Amino acid sequence: MKQKEFLLAIHLTKGIGLARESFIIKAISEGRAPVVYPWTLTELALIIRFDRSQKGFSTIAASYQQALQQVATFDGAYLSFFDSEYPQLLREIYQPPLILFYQGDLRALRLPLLAVVGTRTATSYGQEVIRSLLPEVVQHGVGIVSGLAKGIDVMAHQTTFSAGGVPIAVIGTGLDVFYPLKNRKLQRLVGEQGLLLSEYPPGSGPQRGHFPERNRIIAGLCQATLVVEAKKRSGSLITANLALQENRSVLAIPGSIFSIESAGTNELIAAGAQAITGLEGLLTEGLFDL
């Protein structure tokens, strides 16, 4: 078995999770892991720091055996952490994805990338900002990354398409699952003409915990994250905070003090995010390798 197939089996094994996958990445990177695949259960237990006598290991053991069999017939496209096409910026984040399933053209990952995120209940102001700023950014060769969620995300993808740019969507379900369902056509289009990414295997439905995990990938792929509109409690602010933790640039569109959809972005600016008031701010020298 090749390393890439083995890592897919690890990812498909129930009960391992992001933290233990990080142990595996570190062990292989440091040359401390067995180089013959697949690993025995004893070898796996040592690497993921899970005593075989602990409650729950029997579940991992059974799922691991099933996953090894499943990999033999898996025909989807995916990247492992150790593939040359895996983006370097994403390698640098805390708990990078061990496996990324994808549809589309991986060359999109070579572009300078801007994450564009925001509220699901976008106002006409947010729509105007997207339509005013993104086409010019796209024409400078910047790929646009978002989460294919309702509102700002969808507008970012649609505007990128309209401007002839490259959209990258990171979703919180399997690539064959459409959430929300009305995004089916757009999701397929991104997979055909841009790049569709997911950490979750085919058939995975939406779960609450998937979306914060998805957000770390959006932030991790990009040199900068732009928050267009966001309420005080918003998933977009999670993405912005993750970007800050990874020492990436966080940009925010200022809004009316009377708009609840701008409360989060205004607070980001007050906390030190760069206020974007025009195209110049998005194309700041050094922000992207243009």
Topology diagram in text:
Layout: H1 3-12, H2 17-29, H3 41-47, H4 57-71, E1 78-80, H5 88-91, E2 99-104, E3 113-117, H6 124-139, E4 143-146, H7 152-162, E5 167-171, H8 184-193, E6 195-198, H9 210-221, E7 224-227, H10 235-245, E8 249-252, H11 263-270, E9 274-275, H12 279-282
Parallel strand pairs: 3-4, 3-7, 4-5, 5-6, 7-8, 8-9
Antiparallel strand pairs: 1-2, 2-6
Helix pairs in contact: 1-4, 6-7, 9-10
Name given to the CATH architecture of the largest domain: 3-Layer(aba) Sandwich
Radius of gyration using CA atoms only:
20 Å
Number of helices: 12
The level-1 CATH class of the largest domain: Alpha Beta
Order of helices and strands: HHHHEHEEHEHEHEHEHEHEH
Q: Which whole number gives the mean pLDDT?
A: 94
- Structural class by sheet pairing and helices: alpha/beta
Query: Beta-sheet strand percentage?
Result: 5-15%
CATH topology of the largest domain: Rossmann fold
Number of self-contained structural domains = 2
What is the molecular shape? elongated
**Strand arrangement, largest sheet?**
1-2-6-5-4-3-7-8-9
Q: What characterizes the major β-sheet?
A: 9 strands, mixed
**CA(first)-CA(last) distance:** 41 Å
Q: Which blocks of ≥5 consecutive residues have pLDDT under 50?
A: none
How many strands in all? 9
Query: Which percent bin holds the helix content?
Result: 40-55%
Domain Smf/DprA SLOG: 79-283
Pfam family, one: DNA_processg_A
Protein name: DNA-protecting protein DprA
Family: Belongs to the DprA/Smf family.
